[in-house]
Amino acid sequence: MSTLSTALRTAIDGRWAHVREEARSELEPTRFAPPTEELTLEEYRARVAQQLRELATTGHPARGLSKDVGGEGDFGASVTAFEMLGHADLSLLVKAGVHWGLFGGAVANLGTQRHHTAYLPRILSAELPGCFAMTETGHGSDVQSLQTTATYDPETDEIVVNTPSVAARKDYIGGAARDGRLAAVFAQLVTEGESHGVHCVLVPIRDENGEPMPGVSIGDCGAKAGLRGVDNGRLSFDHVRVPRTNLLNRYGDIDAHGAYTAPIENPTRRFFTMLGTLVRGRISVAGGAGAATRTALTLAVTYAGHRRQFAAPGGEEVRLLDYRAHQRKLLPPLATSYALMFAQNELVSAMHDVQSSGGDPDPHAQRELEARAAGIKAVATAHASATIAVCREACGGAGYLAVNRLPALKADTDVFTTFEGDNTVLLQLVAKGLLTDYRDTFGNLDTLGVARFAARQFAGSVIERTAARGLVERLVAAAPGRDAQDAVLDRGWQCALFDEREQHLVDTLALRLRRAAEPGADAFAVFNDAQDHVIAAARAHVDRVVLEAFVAGVDACTDAAARAMLDRLCDLHALSTIEADRGWFLEHGRITPARSKQVTATVNGLCAQLRPHAQELVDAFGIPAEWLGTELVAPLE
Amino acid sequence: MSTLSTALRTAIDGRWAHVREEARSELEPTRFAPPTEELTLEEYRARVAQQLRELATTGHPARGLSKDVGGEGDFGASVTAFEMLGHADLSLLVKAGVHWGLFGGAVANLGTQRHHTAYLPRILSAELPGCFAMTETGHGSDVQSLQTTATYDPETDEIVVNTPSVAARKDYIGGAARDGRLAAVFAQLVTEGESHGVHCVLVPIRDENGEPMPGVSIGDCGAKAGLRGVDNGRLSFDHVRVPRTNLLNRYGDIDAHGAYTAPIENPTRRFFTMLGTLVRGRISVAGGAGAATRTALTLAVTYAGHRRQFAAPGGEEVRLLDYRAHQRKLLPPLATSYALMFAQNELVSAMHDVQSSGGDPDPHAQRELEARAAGIKAVATAHASATIAVCREACGGAGYLAVNRLPALKADTDVFTTFEGDNTVLLQLVAKGLLTDYRDTFGNLDTLGVARFAARQFAGSVIERTAARGLVERLVAAAPGRDAQDAVLDRGWQCALFDEREQHLVDTLALRLRRAAEPGADAFAVFNDAQDHVIAAARAHVDRVVLEAFVAGVDACTDAAARAMLDRLCDLHALSTIEADRGWFLEHGRITPARSKQVTATVNGLCAQLRPHAQELVDAFGIPAEWLGTELVAPLE
Question: pLDDT tens digits, residue range A576-594?
C-alpha cells in the first residue's frame, strides 16, 4: 500500500483505529468470509448461525456490554468491530446485530440485575440465541401503536402475552424462523385493567429441541431480496404465560402486589427513553451501510482502473476511469463516502461517551445523539443504495454476477433504508429535533408532533453545534465575498452555503407549521402540506453535520500529503452536494447562474485531479483482500 | 374495473390492444406465472426452459418472423405479446428474447434461404435452443473490437472459429450454460489473410445428448443478481471447424472459390447495418422494463392505498398514499410510466412499419428507429431501476419479502440498464444521431465519432420530427407568455421548455466539439471534456420525444373522462421532469426562481388531485390478477 494510502487510512480509521487493525487480521477473513457458492436458504442460515457462534469466541461481543454486567464496556470498539464485519457478509453483521445488539441490548438496557445475571452470560456466548420482537405486521414505523398485549394476571403472578390479530403478529423478526430461543417481545403492558404503554417482556419461543413453546406460533418470512443468512420469521402468541419477573423492568415494573410503578411518569416519554437506550442498532446500520458502500466502491474503482473499452484515436483502448462520465459516476460518491466515514466516527464517539458516562445520560446529549443517529442512518443508507447501484452498473455484466459480490452488497443493503427506522420517518425525527426541545414540551412522536409543537414556536433556528463548529465559523467569517472568482474552492464559502440552506429551511418550516395552531386549522393538513419541506430541512441539517465532520477530519490530519488529498476530496464532496441541490440554491438566490455552472465545472475538474489517485483512495479503506477476491479486481492476463 | 380504468386501458393499450387482451387470457397466467417458491438455480432454469417450450405452442413466437421465412410477419404483435410476459416472469421474457429474438433474429435477418430452411422451423418450435454469442469478456460495449476469429480454410472449405484469449471468451451468453445447442457466434471474419470485420457464424455447441461439441468449452456464469431462470454461460472455441455455409451470409459471403464478397463496401457500415437488423432486442428490453415498472407500481400503489400508519389527531390512522411524501414517491413515476408506455407504443409501431416495408428499409427511417430504440431503452430502463427501488422502499419490510415480488422485479431488471447496450453508451449513440447524418459522412461508431464528425458541422440543430410535432408546434405557438401566471399548466409552455433545452444543448454541444478539428487538438480530450454534455443532450432529446408521444396519446383519446385524466397525468409527467432538471432551466434563464417554485407547488397539487384516482390509474395497466397475487394487494383480514 502506498504511503499516501497508509496516511489516509490513519485519518479515516478514527478513534478506534486499533480495533479496525485488529479486525483486519483477527476477524480472520477466510473464517468470516462471504459465501463463494450459491447456498440454499437453509444452508446459508446454518452457515451464518455457525459463524455467529465462532464470533462469540473472539471477544468482540463482550466489548459491547458495560463492565457492571460482565462486559468490557468499550462500546465504540464494539460498534467499530462490527462495522468491519460489514465488509465481509452483511447477513452475519445483521444476525450478530440482532442477537447481541438488539436482543442483548434490550436485556442489558431495559432489564435489571436479575435479567443480567440470568441471561447475559449465555447471550454473550451465543448459547441462548435471541430475537428482538418489536415490529408487527400492522405497525412498523409507529411502534408506539403496537397491538400485542402483555397483561398481568395477579391470580398466578404471571404476564399473559397475546397476539389479538394478524396485524399484531410480530413480523420480519431476525432469528425467529430458525434459531431464536428467547424473544424480547414489545407489547402494551396492562395491569389492573390499565394500559401503561409499550414495554418489553422476555418470552421463550423454542425449547431445547428447537420446538415452538406451547402457545407460540412461528412462521417463516422465507426468501427475501437479500440477507439470506438471516432467518426472519413471524411470531404469534396465544395467551402465553411467563413469570412477572420476565418483564424487563428498568423503566416500568410490576411489584409483588401487582401495582405498576415507573420512574418516568409520561408514558410517551417513558417509551422513547426506553427506545433511546437502543440507539446503537441504528448507528450500526449506518456503519454497515458505510462498509458495504466502501466495498462496492473498491471493487468498481479497481475494475474501472484496468478495464478498457473503445480505442482513443491512434492509441490504446481507454480505461473506463479515464472517461469523464465514469469519473462522474464513481468519484463524487467516493468523496461522500469519506465524508460519511468521518461523520460515522464522530457519531460512534459521541455514543461511546454518552453511554460510558455512568448512570442515566444527560438528556440533552442523549437527545442529540438520537437525532444524529437517525440523520446519519438515513443519509448513509440512502447513499449506500444509490452508490452500490451505480457501482454495479459501472461494472456492466461482470457487476451482475454473484461471484463478483456486487449483487449481494446491493440486495443485502437494500432494506437498510427502511429497517431500524424508515428513512422518511427518521428524517422527520431529525426535523422535529431541529425545532428544539420538542420532547419536553410536547412528548408525542407521531407525525403530527412536529406540527403541533412548531405551532408554538417562533421562527429563528439556531445552528446546532458540532465538534467543528468553531472552526467552521472562522472559515465562514474568512470566506471571500460572493463575487470572488475562486470562491467555490473556499471551504468557508462552501460551509456558508450549507449553513444558510439549513437555516432558511428550518426558519420557513417553523413559520409554515405555526398555521397548525390557528383556530380551526386542520393540523394534519398543515403538516402534510409541509412534509417535503420537513424532509428537506432535515436533509440539509444532516448534510451540514456531515460536511463539518469532514472539515474536522481534514483539520485533524497531520500528514501533509494526506491532508491535501482530503482537502480536495472535501471540495468534491461539498461541491457535488451543492450541485445536486443547485435548483434550491438558485431558486433562493444563494448562487448565481454563472456560479452554478462554475460549481459543475469545478466538480469535473476535481474528478480529473483525483482520478490518478483513485486506487490509493480506495486502498485506504483497508478492506482485507480475501473479502475483495473477485474477478473485478484482477485484470485478465 | 371502473369505466375510467377501462377507457384509460384502451388509450394506453395502443395499436396492438387486441394482442394485449389476448395475452391477458391466452398466456394463461397460472401456466406462465412467476415462481411462488424459492427454487435452486437449476430448478429455476429447468422451469423456465419448460415454459419456453410451452410458449412455443402458443403461436406468439411465429408472429415475430416474416411470412417469407415461415412466420406470420406481425412484428408489432410479437413484441407486444412479449412485453405482456414482462408482467409475469422476467427470466422467461429474457430466455424467450434470447432464443427467438436474438438467436432466431440473427438467423432470420443475417442468414439467407439455406439457413432459414434448415433452422427456422426448429427454432420456432424451440426444438433447437440457441445462443446469441456476441459479448466477450473483454468487449461488451465495443462489439466492433471483438477478438474471436472465424478464419476460412480453403483446404477443407471450412470456417475455423477460435478464441485467442480469455478476454475473447464469449461471456454472459444466455442459454449457454444449460440448454443451448447452436450458437450464433460473432467473430472477425478472415479470408485469404484479410479481415473483413465482425460477421456471424453458426456453431453447434452441444450434441443431442447435451454434451459440449469437440473444441467447445462451456462455462457457467453461475448465480446472478437476478434473472435466475436464464442460464448464462461462457463459450470458448479451440479451432472449431464448421462448414463454410454456416456463415450467415446476407451481408458478407465467401464464395465457393474462397473469395469474400459483400453488398456494403465499408466494413463499419456493413457491421452496423447487420446490427441494425437486430434492433428489436433493444425495443423488447425497453418493453420488459416498462411492464416490470407497471407491476411494481401496481403493487406499491395498491399497498399504499390500504396500509395505514400513524393516527391523525382524533382520527383514524392515515393511509400511506395520503401522505404527501408518499404521493411524491409514487405518483410522478406513475405519470412517467404512462408517458413511456405511449412512447414505447410509438416505437413498436415504427419498428413494425420499417420492418414490414419489404426489402431493405429506408436508411433514414432505419437510422431514426435505431436512435429512437437506443434512447427509449436507456430512459425506460433507468426509470425502471429507480421506480422499482422506490416501490420496494414504499412497501417497507413487506417489500423486501420474495413472496411479494418486488425483490425479483428489482433484481431482474437491474441488468437492463447495461445489457442490450450500456445506457451511457446508448445515450452517446442518440447524441451522435442528433448531430445528423454522421454515419454517411463519417462511418465510425467509436466514442470519438461524435467529436470528429461534429467538428465538421456548424451549430444549428433541427428538432427531429415526431408524430405529434405539428400538434406540438401549434401548442407552443399558442402558449401564454413567459410571465403568464397559469403558464405551467399550459401544454405549449411545457413543450417549449423541452424544445428549448434540447436545442440549446445540441447547439452548444456542436460548438464545443468543433474544437476537436482545430490544429493540434487532442480529439479524445475534447470529446471527454464534453461527455456529460453529450449525455445531457441525448437525455433532453429523449425527454422531448417521450413528452410528444404523451401529447399525441392524449390527443388521440376520445373518451372525455380518460382524456381529462391523461391530461393531468401529462402535466404531472412534464412538470416533474422540469422540476428534476430545474437547476438547468434556472442556470439558463429559461425559468425564473418564482416560476421554479411554482412548478414544485404545482407538482404537489397534481399529486393531491390524482391521489383519489391512483388505484384506477394502476388498474388500467390490466395486469392479470394471478401475477399480482401477493400479500401487498390484500389488506389484512
Answer: 999 999 999 999 999 999 9
Interchain CB distance below 8 Å, B407 and A402: no
Helix B279-306 and helix B406-414: axis angle, to 10°? 150
- How distant, in Å, are the alpha carbons of A251, B81, B282, B285, B501 from that of B373? 63, 18, 6, 10, 21
Q: What is the 3-state secondary structure (H, E, C) of A416-477?
A: HHCCCCCHHHHHHHHHHHHCCCHHHHHCCCCCCHHHHHHCCCCCCCCCCCCCCHHHHHHHHH
Optimal mutation site among B220, B318, B400, interface A, most CBs of chain A within 10 A:
B400
- A475, three cell numbers: 472559515
Q: How far apart are CA B230 and CA B178, in angstroms?
A: 9
In chain A, residues with a C-beta closer than 8 Å to the C-beta of B221 are 401
Strand (E) or helix (H) holding A218: strand A216-220
Nearest of A204, A202, A245 to residue A107 by alpha carbon = A202
Grid coordinates representing A365 are 446529549
CB-based contact A631:A348 (threshold 8 Å) = no
Segment (H or E) for B453:
helix B449-454
Contacts of B392 in chain A (CB under 8 A): 225, 414
Cα separation, B247 vs A221, whole angstroms = 52
In one-letter notation, the amino acid at residue B56 is: A
| B 513-532 near A (Cβ less than 8 A) | 523-524, 528-529, 531-532
> Which long-range CB contacts under 8 A does A26-29 form with residues at least 24 apart?
A26/A58, A27/A58, A27/A60, A27/A81, A27/A84, A27/A85, A27/A88, A27/A624, A29/A88, A29/A624, A29/A625, A29/A626, A29/A627
CA distances from B401 to A113, A227, A238, A409, B404 (A): 38, 11, 25, 17, 6
Residues 576 through 595 of chain A touching chain B, CB cutoff 8 Å = 579, 582-583, 586-589, 593
Residue A464 has a pLDDT of 63
Query: What distance in Å separates the CA atoms of residue A134 and residue A171, rounded to the nearest whole number?
Result: 8
C-alpha cell at B267: 466494413
Contact criterion met (CB below 8 Å) for A22 and A622? no
The pTM for the full model equals: 0.96
Question: For B282-297, what is each residue's pLDDT tens digit?
Answer: 999 999 999 999 999 9
Q: Which residues, 6 or more positions from A326, have their beta carbon under 8 angstroms from its beta carbon?
A: A304, A320, A394
Q: Which of B214, B227, B242 is nearest to B157 (CA)?
A: B242
Q: Which residues 286-345 in chain A show a CB within 8 A of chain B?
A: 309-313, 315, 317-318, 322-325, 328
ipTM of this predicted structure? 0.95
